[in-house]
Amino acid sequence: MSPPPPNEDDVISQHDSSSIPQNRPISTIVIIIAMQTEALPLVDSFQLTEDLNSLFPIGTPWVRYHGTYKGLNINIIWPGKDAVLGVDSVGTVSASLVTYAAIQALKPDLIINAGTAGGFKAKGACIGDVYVASEVAFHDRRIPIPVFDLYGVGLRRGCSTPNLVKELEFKVGKLSTGDSLDMTPHDEASILANDAVVKDMEGAAVGYVTDLLKVPAIFVKAVTDIVDGDKPTSEEFLNNLSAVTLALGKAVTQVVDYISGKSISEL
Ligand code: ADE
To answer: From the CB of 170, is ligand 1 less than 6 Å away?
Structure first.
């Protein structure tokens, strides 16, 4: 006989049970961003400089931009360009590696995973909307064996930020992550099962690592394309990328402004 399935509270990790003190002011923030186009408006906004003596292993393309902004030690980590193909190292593998390396090297109080996402118009998403994800999960790790199925979905909660989302008037919804920009019918069924309003290629991978290492994480995602619409995703994504990354930059700047001087428990 197989053991009874675990109940939801046993399987959803909560970043709030983190070993990081909840009541002292946040000091060091790591912002994980997959694409250079998404990172640069923020590098500008926070007046960060690129680290020329990398903290990371020799040979990795990972880039850190850092500086001090409103009393916070800010680090943007971009996984860099693929050494052979010269494109941004998007997706879950790079995202989890840089998140792990950045936490080990910088011991941040908070991780922010910022990026673009596809949105579901059936769930109210519009181009340019900015969402803070309440939960993150995978939609392309299908393992139809009891309990392995839940492991594949890899559901994690984001850091609880009721005051931040209220004050900044962000939309809140669930984020589903997979390693493809497009969406197969299988993916779509899993995304719907995850009850997600936005889909990306990094969030749940970052969430896996932040949960392992008990670092609170906030996921901020701006919608570049409507995945249940009639436009081809890659075309719509590329057409909207630069305008939406500006909206993303503005939103993440507002988040960091809000965080300045506060502790995790005040967010
Ligand atoms: N990033 C932006 N649009 C996306 C989409 N449709 N799927 C996954 N990641 C995205």
So the answer is: no
Select which of 16, 38, 82, 179 is catalytic: 38
Which among 199, 221, 223 is the best mutation to test ligand 1's pocket, defined by most ligand atoms within 8 Å of the CB? 199
pTM, two decimal places: 0.93
User: Per-domain residue ranges for the chain?
Assistant: 25-266
The closest of 115, 36, 141, 140 to 82, measured between CA atoms, is 36
Q: Taking the CB of residue 32, how many other CB atoms lie within 10 A of it? A: 30
* Ligand 1 pocket, residue 199 CB under 6 Å: yes
- Burial category of 263 from C-beta neighbours within 10 Å (exposed 0-12, middle 13-18, buried 19 and up): middle
pLDDT tens string for the chain (267 positions)?
A: 344 445 544 445 544 445 566 889 999 999 999 999 999 999 999 999 999 999 999 999 999 999 999 999 999 999 999 999 999 999 999 999 999 999 999 999 999 999 999 999 999 999 999 999 999 999 999 999 999 999 999 999 999 999 999 999 999 999 999 999 999 999 999 999 999 999 999 999 999 999 999 999 999 999 999 999 999 999 999 999 999 999 999 999 999 999 999 999 999
Atom of ligand 1 nearest to the CA of 180: 8
Q: What is the CATH number of domain 25-266?
A: 3.40.50.1580
The C-alpha atoms of residue 163 and residue 136 are separated, in whole angstroms, by 20
